[in-house]
Amino acid sequence: MSLHVIVGAGATGSAAARLLAESGEQVRLVTRRGGGPVHPRIERVPADAGDADRLAELVAGAEVLFNCAMPPYDRWPAEWPPLAAALLAAAERGGADYVMLGNTYGYGPVEGPVTDGAPLAPTSRKGEVRARMWLDARAAHEAGRVRVTEVRASDFLGAGAYSPFTLMVGAQVLAGAPASYPGDLDAPHSWTYTGDAARTLVAAARDERSWGRAWHVPSTSDLPVRSLAARLAAAAGVSEPRLRHMPAHELEEIARTDSIMAEFPEMLYLYDRPNVLDASSTREALGVTPTPIGDVLAEMAAAARPMEEAGSRP
């Protein structure tokens, strides 16, 4: 039994912790409040991962450090750099391999399917943050200080997942309410199931071919938003979605009073045109295949039912 440290207990970090624990590994799950799934082989530790010294203590003796952390979306430029530096330093000092959960922001706009070998050319502040995190980690790898790899996901789906779709469309569809979405409703778009992201993280950590490069999570679907919303409604047995395109002026108006929505305009290039990931190398080398979209949507629908039932009780 070896020790694996995971920082962050969101949907993907929690799924990765369960996968490792169920396979017989010891997991130390680090969050600010000590939350996360309950399992005999999961040790939940409250700690500030930005404290490099404390994190190094927690990583000492670990085989792998997984970075599944996520600062508040509207504070990435200020909070990600010191947190990323602390995580990288902890992996180096503890002698652990370092596996990062990333996204596609660092590529910038790309025509056609995005491969995991595409150059980083960010056009947004958040993309610059993600690109710098990977470049710093890869430099440490190339210098022989630590072995690193990054698993890059697209927009998340699944129970407890957070993405523009789940926040602006999925929740409304499940509640039978109208929804507005600022992207192209009919453009193909890759969707990442949180469970598939967790399986890719674990597979990358266990494969000697992983280090020094990035991997894409195989997408559960490339359905456009309009089709995805219709499939979710059918899975939940609710009425057909009432979905409309949110015009730019409306998004700008909302952004004036909503700090999270204020971060969305610079990322519109991901949503106002086709955005499809090529994960063929992950499938072939790591053996990860995506969960069927029907299973993912059924999970999302089932997760919403207890909340609906609780809300209907007197």
TrEMBL record:
The protein's matches in InterPro entries, at most eight in alphabetical order, are given as: Epimerase_deHydtase, NAD(P)-bd_dom_sf
**Pfam families recorded:** Epimerase
The organism's superkingdom is given as: Bacteria
Which Gene3D superfamilies would you find in this protein's record? NAD(P)-binding Rossmann-like Domain (3.40.50.720)
The segment(s) forming the NAD-dependent epimerase/dehydratase domain are: 6-208
Listed name of the protein:
Nucleoside-diphosphate-sugar epimerase
